[in-house]
Amino acid sequence: MNRYLTLIFATLLFAACGEEKKETAQAEEPELSFTSKNYYKKTTLPCSDPCANVRIEVPVAEGVPVVADSINKKVFNTVKSIVYHSEKPYTSNNYEDLTDAFIGAYDEMKKKFPEDMLGWEGRVKGTIDYRSDSILNIKLNHYTFTGGAHGYEGNRSLLFNLNTGKSLSYNAIFKDVRAFTTFAETKFREKYNIPAGKSINSTGLMFPDEAFILPENIFFKEDGLLLYYNAYEIASYAEQQKELFLPYDDIDSFLKVK
């Protein structure tokens, strides 16, 4: 009898130890986190306000190297496409050099045309707009002025698979992109009073080939999707951005993830 009791006790002890190790391993598993980082640079040339300057604030992923590296690389490359202003290829891969390059391009132009140059400005503010168990949505609000009548302000939406760090395509978001596009066009026409059967551009919009298309930027919100067209994408600058909000209650059947 003692032999059997010893065997049962050993089995229970082994199971308990296994469960404890499992819980410890889960507790020690790294989690993806974000730290806000700021970068700022201002011209050192003589100037009157506003002096040329650039400011970048972005969430930097940490904790799960493969996932974090993929997210950080995409964010950086997008910020670079917004801020970098030079005919020369950009060869660096960090924000300090990016701000240096922006001010360096201004300083070069200022030395050539000292009387004609107004202060350039570059501004990017990145925030985590939405996060679920499977999706991460980073929003980049940006403004740039490098001469001309006015600057340009807009928003970029970066969508990631939170488990891999890879960018989400619309095929990964929607079960049927074409069906969702048809639904979104109907709602877009309703909001902007564009009669069915008429060209999508009949009220002054500028969709390419006069055909409705989904925007490059879609934002996940707590209660729905925001379809966001920046200024110039489908309308004149004077009309600014166009947007369409679609509640999840209306579009759940189209979504693969949320």
List keywords for this structure.
5-stranded mixed β-sheet, 258 residues, 2 domains, Actin, Chain A, domain 4, Heat Shock Protein 90, 3-stranded antiparallel β-sheet, alpha+beta
Integer tally of domains: 2
The end-to-end distance, rounded to whole angstroms, is 57 Å
Number of helices: 6
Structural class based on helices, strands and sheet pairing? alpha+beta
State the helicity in percent bands.
25-40%
Would you count the extended β strands for me?
8
Order of helices and strands: HEEHHEEEHHEEEH
Approximate shape = flat
CATH-defined architecture of the largest domain: 2-Layer Sandwich
Structure report:
By secondary structure, the protein is of the alpha+beta class. It folds into two domains: 129 residues, Fervidobacterium nodosum Rt17-B1 like (Heat Shock Protein 90, 2-Layer Sandwich); 85 residues, Actin, Chain A, domain 4 (Alpha-Beta Complex). The protein contains six helices and eight strands; from the N terminus they run αββααβββααβββα. It has a five-stranded mixed sheet with strand order 1-2-3-4-5. Strands 6-7-8 form a three-stranded antiparallel sheet. The radius of gyration is 25 Å and the shape is flat. The mean pLDDT is 89.
